[in-house]
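S.,

As promised, the PRP run. Input:
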Amino acid sequence: MGKVFVFDHPLIQHKLTFIRDKRTGTKEFRELVDEVATLMAFEITRDMPLDEVEVETPVTTAKAKVLSGKKIGIVPILRAGIGMVDGILKLMPAAKVGHIGLYRDPETLQPIEYYVKLPADVDERDFILVDPMLATGGSALVAINALKKRGAKNIKFMCLIAAPEGVEILKEAHPDVDIYIAALDEKLDDHGYIVPGLGDAGDRLFGTK
Ligand code: PRP
Ligand code: URA
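Predicted complex:
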């Protein structure tokens, strides 16, 4: 079964409060999402493999560690996932970025796939799939299917806010995918919105309404 990690770091929790606040405008919302994505990326990379090297310090030779150079792919679910990409790239500037375009049909809430573009060497990369919201879980589920269908073997899913319903569906459908969340909220409302949530992540990021 996939593991679920809820990041309770004070900086993440503090910034998330202002992301939730309906008075927070587009500019600040975007900046905060970017900052939280960086902080979450710091936590999510804890298990990155390291190689031992020798380095000459001004004093002596030291045994030290460097990243072993595992290839990373960051994949935002369009649109709202885009808001998290730059924040992650600050820590992993060499990562490649793919895109998966989905929107939820407003009537059925079912995700409709409209665009998939991934790095060519999909099967050699570890992927971080990002979307601020995990609500019914439908979008994440379809996006993970799209990644796996093209050869991705190692996928982590990272979001700001999740509903218990979405987490359960994802754990069930993709037990090999670990889920990283800044907050696990109470429930979904009748329109598939997370309660208390932050509203519509895409609209708040891009100023559309
Ligand atoms: C939002 C959000 C997720 C999805 C989550 O996107 O960014 O992708 O809903 O909901 P789910 O877990 O029930 O599938 P939306 O469909 O509103 O599209 P947008 O990003 O283009 O606004
Ligand atoms: N998508 C959003 O943007 N917000 C929610 O609360 C649920 C899905």
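The pocket of uracil (ligand 2) is lined by residues 133, 135, 192-194, 197, 200-202 (CB under 6 Å). The chain has a mean pLDDT of 96.

- D.
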